[in-house]
Structures are given as C-alpha cells and as structure tokens.
Amino acid sequence: MDFILGIDGGGTGCRAAVATRDGQVLARGGSGAANIRTDLTSARAHIVEAARRAFIEAGKDPELIKAAPAVLGLAGANVGTYRQQLRAILPFRESRVESDAEIALEGAIGAGDGAIAVLGTGSAYRVRRGGVSRPVGGWGFQVGDQASGARIGRDLLEQTLLACDGICEASPLTREIMAVFRDNPEDVVEFTVAAKPGDYGGFAPKVFDHAARGDAVARRIVDKAVADVEGALGALDLREGDALCLLGGLAGLYAPLLAPRYRALLREPKGDALIGAVRMAARVFGHDAEAGDG
Amino acid sequence: MDFILGIDGGGTGCRAAVATRDGQVLARGGSGAANIRTDLTSARAHIVEAARRAFIEAGKDPELIKAAPAVLGLAGANVGTYRQQLRAILPFRESRVESDAEIALEGAIGAGDGAIAVLGTGSAYRVRRGGVSRPVGGWGFQVGDQASGARIGRDLLEQTLLACDGICEASPLTREIMAVFRDNPEDVVEFTVAAKPGDYGGFAPKVFDHAARGDAVARRIVDKAVADVEGALGALDLREGDALCLLGGLAGLYAPLLAPRYRALLREPKGDALIGAVRMAARVFGHDAEAGDG
C-alpha cells in the first residue's frame, strides 16, 4: 500500500484527498452530493468519482483507489445502518465510515482531548476524551440547533411580528426587517411558508451586528443564543488545557462573546474536515499497514 | 328576499346555514374544503354546494340561493385580493366576505365590544371596539402562534432532547417522551422531518396534565405559554366589562391559568363561527333589505 484516502461527503458535495501513508496530501478531487440517507447509490458513485479525480490530479492511475484504505466522514453516518450499507459496497481496500462531525473534530484538534462547536446554519457539538468521542446537540432546526443561524433568524422574524402586533417592543432592527417585508406581516408569513434553515440563517449576521450596536431586540436574541452555546459547552465536561475549536460561519461572531472560562480554551482549528479524514486514515491505516507489510 | 345565508369555510370543509332574515336558522349543509388561497375555483364550488344543501335540507328550492344575500367567513380572506376575486364569482344576491376570525368573533361575543383568543393547534386573537375589529397574532407555526398546541409540543420535544444531551434537567415528562421515541433522539428527529403543526399539537394536553402535577419541565413550558397568552391579551386593550371568549381545543386548559384580571372578563361563547356568519348576515342584510323592500 502506497496511498491512503480521506473523504468528506455531505448534502452539497463530496471531496477526496489522496495522501502518502504518513498523511502528506498529494492531491484533491471533488464531485457531487454524497447524501447516504437519501440516495446511497448516488452517494457511492460521487465518493468513488471524487477519489478517482484525486488520484488523477496526483498523476496516478485511478484504478489504484482499490488498493487504498479510506476514512470517510459522511453526514448521516451516525444514523441507522447507512454506515454498514455503504461500507459493504465501497471499492476501497478498507473503509472506515465516520460521521461528518467526527472527521471535523479530528481535523480541528487532532487526535487528543478536546471539542468542537459547529456554529453555522445549524449547530452541533462533539467532544473527545481518552480517545472516545460523543456528540451533543445537532438535532436539527425544528427542535434543536439552538444558537444556530437558522434559529437566530427565526427568532428575529418572531420578535419582528410580535413588535408589529404591539406585543413586544420594536427596535431599529425589527423596523428594518418589517421594511424588508414591505411593512406587511403577511409577507413575512409568505416567506416562512417556503423558507429553509439557510434562508432564516441569512439574517443572523445582521442580528449580531445590531446587537453590537446596542439594539435591544438583537441583544436579547444574541444573549439567549450565547447562553445556549454555553449551556451546550457545559455539557461537554471540558477541562483546563482542553482544546476547543469553534467552526462554522458564526464561529468568529460567537468567540468574543463567550465567558472567559471558554475563551481560555479556544484554539484555531488545525485543519478542516477533509484533513481530519486524511489524518485519521494515516493514524488508523498507516501504521497498521506498515506493521502488516513489514 | 326571504332567506339569508351564513357560510363558514376553511381548509377542512365548508358549512352553510340558511336562516330567516331575522337570523333564525332553518337548516344547515356541508361540503368540502374552501381554501380560497390555494384553489379558488374549488372553493367556490364547495361554497355553492354547501349553500344548496342547506336550502334542500330546509325543504326549499336550491335555486333560491341566487336570491339570498350571504356573509362568508373564510380562512385566508384577509390576505391579498382573494376576497375580491371570490366575491366577483359568487352566485348569491350579495356577498360579504370576512376572515374566519371575524365570524368567529361575531359568533362568540355578538355585535358588541370584546375579543376572542383562539387557542388550538394554532393561536390567534381578534378584538372589536366601537364596531371596528382588528387581528393580533395568528402568524403561523414557524414564527408565530405562541402558546398554541403546536408550539407547546415543539417546546416539549426541544426540552426533551436538551435533557437527553444533559444540557437541561430531565423530568418525568421528558423521560416519558423519550420512551415514546424508544429512547433514541434520532427517532425524535425523524418525527420532526414530516411533522405538521397538528402532530406537535398532539402532545400539548399531556404537557398541561404534567404541569398540573408539578413536572418542572412541563411547568416551565406552560408558564411561558400562559405569559405569551397574557402578552397578546395585553395588546388587545381590553377594558372592564368587555367580553373575552377563549376558543379552540386548549381554551378550557388555559382559562383557569390566566391572571384574575383576564379571568374576570371571560364569557362562554354565544355561538360558533357559522352562527356568527348568520348573525352578521341578519345584521347587515336583514334590516337593509327590509328597508329596501318596504
């Protein structure tokens, strides 16, 4: 065995990296969505395509993917039997299928103890101690994902309509949002009929911006969101010296707002999820293979 | 003109009542959905069918609907130009198209000053003073309908998952709910993927029941919901002597929990929305017609 594969797949696309067995990345390749929960066959095809493209990009024969062991981090791999189903049909020499959060954790903090908080359109946490990692949160927009961009945007529209009805105080931000919807609450409702989490999440940076400028409604929403993040961090049992990485589009907005005890743990992520998959492949397959080949 | 029509139409069905011009109901008729926002043509057909059935049930020639003036209360009539579009194609002698909330208000409190709070799967309020009525709330499950059964059910699942993650306290109720979902948070998430507001609302009576027995999580959810109801009632500018009617499936659960100043205004509803449409028709068309015929 000369090469290992790291693969990062999700609902919007699939990325692969081919690396030497000590984890030096040689080249990358990309393809379409790899959603194992909704379309396993197409997910497999895109995973293989991304891997072949990475080999071609590295100037290697793409048929060599069959000789390479792979670590795959895939959204939905933690649910049901999708992981086992996929493993059975992959063409790689060996396949280890992890959740997307697991390879993001590995990419961000490496192999040691620590945690990630993914704060983007959704929100999710993962903590590792003594080699064992566990997820916290990440249950989706409707009944989870507290402090996510989507939840913040939804809170904003709710507060805007309450202000419109005279039930809660209005603010410069709620007035600005009403103007976006032509001062017609029915237009807000029409928006919500088709809105996806990402559509709500589009309002989140504006809420942080107005909160920083003292807008009362924005501050209430952001204060609640920060409390929700700290509540989840509290459930991670972090200790002094642990690494904590904030990931996702809102990471930079939350970092300065956290309590000092959490700010003290913050680190820049070492790498992204794809790098995490590569590193895990080097850790899991690189040494074993060496021992086996020796 | 000998007869008047009252019509109550919505997404699940359409009811009509034929009455003498002083508002004495002679007979009723029903038909299918009358959703003017999604299918105006079919809504018109069901409205006409319900009216004809009411006349037949009363032993009258159904062709007489063309000589009868009608008040229609229809979900969605307060939005866009649906009201005007429908009015232009109705076969009745004259048609007055109101929102479903307006005829519910008329049915509950009659023609005077007062308000209704509709507390069921959704929530909405309507207040009338000096003959002018206005809506408050009712903006739907995603960004409105505070204190509705759907919102209470959604809150319960959210608190249950937070307890499952160790972020918030568990309670007998959250443990009972986790057992419903086979102690698997992923099963909760699967439920939310397809759940409609009514599906969430199914949990609401259980939350009130556990709150009454002291369950900490249930009490927090119900306390918040009661505060939301009182917040909306506060925006109605109710005065001593005003009539306040609680309608909807949760009315009886909320009534004893409201602050004394609101409990003092509570009245049993005089009649339902269909009766409201008939009464409004008698008020609007009965006297005018008499004067015109005389």
UniProtKB/TrEMBL annotation, chains A, B:
Q: What is its EC number?
A: 2.7.1.8
One Gene Ontology molecular-function label: glucosamine kinase activity
Top-level taxon of the source organism: Bacteria
Xref: InterPro entries: ATPase_BadF, ATPase_NBD, Euk-type_GlcNAc_Kinase
Please give the Gene3D superfamilies that the UniProt record associates with this protein.
3.30.420.40
ATPase BadF/BadG/BcrA/BcrD type domain mapped to chain residues: 5-254
CDD domains assigned:
ASKHA_NBD_GspK-like
What keywords is this UniProt entry annotated with?
Answer: Kinase, Transferase
Which named protein is this?
Glucosamine kinase
Q: What is the lineage of its organism?
A: Bacteria, Pseudomonadati, Pseudomonadota, Alphaproteobacteria, Hyphomicrobiales
